[in-house]
Amino acid sequence: MLQLEIQNPDQVELPDLEWLTQCAASAYQGEFDTPSAVLRVVGAEEGRSLNNSYREKDYATNILSFPSDFSDLPPEVLDEEDAAYLGDLVVCAEVVEKEALEQKKTKDQHWAHLLIHGVLHLQGYDHITEDEAAVMEAIEIKLLGELGIPDPYNETQEG
């Protein structure tokens, strides 16, 4: 099972840790028995600053993914713990809450979607092209369905 280290300096109310871990773990497709990632929960100011620094977008976004740099290193220089480290996810809780309301989803449903989305990014998935987006969305829809969560891309569906 994926090990999810939570950093929540502002002590924002989060969904159940077990639920967050289950959602993130559902998206892991690698071979390690105990992959790990860090989930940092930030406020709008820090979210905006990070999004501006790394994506040159001057607003707080829902989730940012920072894949581990370890994948660029030869396996023989890493111990298993380092090799299994996927990277960091940064979630702006304020944005998640606002989007959940706007999209008529529960907060737990939206967190689940974003964690799955983020863990897929940590493993190299992207949605820059239409083909990449179709692949990534299909995986997300399947995994969310397995968790009992409706398709987030079907706008006619109520959450």
Q: Would you kindly provide a written description of the structure presented here, covering whatever features stand out?
A:
The chain is α/β, with parallel strands linked by helices. The protein has 6 helices and 4 strands, in the order E-H-E-H-E-H-E-H-H-H. A 4-stranded mixed beta sheet has the order 1-2-4-3. Helix 1 crosses helix 5, helix 4 crosses helix 5 (107-122) and helix 5 (107-122) crosses helix 6. It is globular. The two termini are 27 Å apart.
Share of helix among residues? 40-55%
Largest sheet, spatial ordering of strands: 1-2-4-3
- Kindly, what is the distance between the CA atoms of the first and last residues, rounded to a whole number of angstroms? 27 Å
Structural Rg? 15 Å
Principal-axis shape equals globular
Q: How much strand?
A: 15-25%
